[in-house]
Design goal:
The complex is a heterodimer of chains A (about 325) and B (about 270).
Chain A: H1 2-67, H2 70-73, E1 77-78, E2 83-84, H3 87-118, H4 121-136, H5 139-166, H6 181-205, H7 209-217, H8 222-251, H9 254-259, H10 277-284, H11 291-331
Chain B: H1 2-27, H2 33-37, H3 51-82, H4 87-101, H5 104-116, H6 124-149, H7 152-160, H8 165-193, H9 197-202, H10 220-229, H11 233-268
Helix pairs in contact in B: 1-11, 3-6, 3-8, 3-10, 4-6, 5-6, 6-8, 7-8, 8-11, 10-11
The chains are: A mainly alpha (about 325), B mainly alpha (about 270).
Main location (chain B): membrane
Family (chain B): Belongs to the binding-protein-dependent transport system permease family. CysTW subfamily.
Keywords (chain B): Cell membrane, Membrane, Phosphate transport, Transmembrane, Transmembrane helix, Transport
Amino acid sequence: MNSHAQLQTEVQQNASLQQKIYQKRRFRWMDHGFKWLTFSFGCIILIMFVWIILELTNESKQSISKFGLGFIFSQDWNPVKGEFGALPFIYGTIVSSLIAIIIAAPISIGIALFLNEMAPKWLKQPVAFMIELLAAIPSILYGLWGLFVMVPFIRDWLQKPISKYLGGFPLFSGAPIGLGMLTAGILLAIMIIPIITALARDVIRVVPTLQKEGYLALGATKWEVIWKIILPFARPGILGACILGLGRALGETMAVTMVIGNRAEIKASLFAPGHSMAAVIANEFTEATDDIYLSSLIEIGLLLFLVTFVLNAGARFLIWTVAKGSKGGVKG
Amino acid sequence: MLVIVVLLTSLALIPLISILSYIIYKGAPAINLDFFTKLPAAVGETGGGIGNSIVGTFVLILIASCVGLPVGIMAAIYLNEYMPKGMYSSTIRFVIDVLLGIPSVVIGIFAYLAFVKPIGHFSAWSGGLALAIIMIPIVTRSTEEILRLTPNSMREGSYALGISKWRTILHIVLPYSIKGIVTGIMLGIARVAGETAPLLLTAFGNHFWNTSISEPIASLPAQIFEYAKSPFDDWIQKAWGAAFVLIMLVLLINIAARSLTRSRLKNVD
């Protein structure tokens, strides 16, 4: 009896030991399994990226081989005749984005300085929150508001007075209809202010406090600290922030297409309707019946992709140099 | 100086207040029960609603989340927990940076070429996938940043108890940072909820109830675009109504997400 009981416990022990070993093995397997699972999800992102580039280059081949470099420099966009030149769209995208960045950059830097250096504590949070809300509004709603509120406002309060007194200049010639480059640029400026502000705040935050305080101790005013310490130190980073904002403005689609007028022409006047690269894709893509028409639109998409790619890489590099510089500064 | 920056700041806040107040002022009167439950009225008729667009937006978000969230979160776990440094991870981080900067309309072209053209017709799932591609870099970026904030002592304590790495991640690291991860997810959802351009090229739009995800589907942003361009007053009013619903959705998600992180930060302090 005794030996039997012993045997039984031994068997039980053995079983539990085996189970433990089995569990351990299973866990080890799971450990590897989980690692490779997460690894493969990372691979999905890489594959997706390569796939995007392949699809865009493959499908735009037809247009690239037919029009070559002339695609970028030709003004003719005539789907009926099968002539495709992207210059009006490239021009519209560049001009509207430049207007946007010229308006948005000083405002954003001002807000960043206000929030980081001057605002009383109780005001900081709500104002920062409201600026962030500006980034949360979908672009289609900017477009809706732009079309029904901003277009009439700009027509009556900005374009009419300007064309009355400065209508002789080619820059302000033409009928004040509200839709056009200027309106698109102003709307884009509103949309990119939160992006530039957030990045500029990050850059201004890393300006070494020691330097600011040292300068203040020497009797400098707040104004002098901003102009002689903060802005010079943060300059590359602020430039990077502006370039990122520019990249966002270049690719903006819905808001622009609703207020820019959608006409594939190059006019010197800021009041004239124009078109943009992203807008023409959104407007004409589903109507493109010919292969070459579709291929041309995809080539515009590819150009947009390449430009934003280069701008983003450059901007990240500039912001990175400031962050690196601040580390050195703290140590020194 | 103070005067200048205060002026600049208020200059940026005017559009925000104007947008919100106009959408409420013009959109709220369009809201009634029919608006949420009925299909769009035929051309020339008044009445009807945008029930199918509201449902469509939620369906698209659901598809995008089912595809985008696992990819985004798992990739972030690999980046932070398994391989914080190295070629592979820095390549992924770089690709995420690039993906964040790609205009959404370009993603739309890709989704059209990859998911619509081979099939031959527009579909809800291709729209959902396009939104997922926009969502993945946002979710990966925010999840990775939250995971990085998890103190190492938590992981080490778990290892000291003999708990394997994958269980540490699932039972210690993720529960600790769940609020931050959810915040990132919600911001990603809020971002894609208002995306229009990729949907025009993939989900296209639909004037009826959608019965299958392989059919075109209506969505709030696409419906706003269609109505805003129309010459009919009734449709334009519907566009404002749809804008009201969309902005409420987006703002509520945003505010909820932010209040989540704020309470989490308090816990940490």
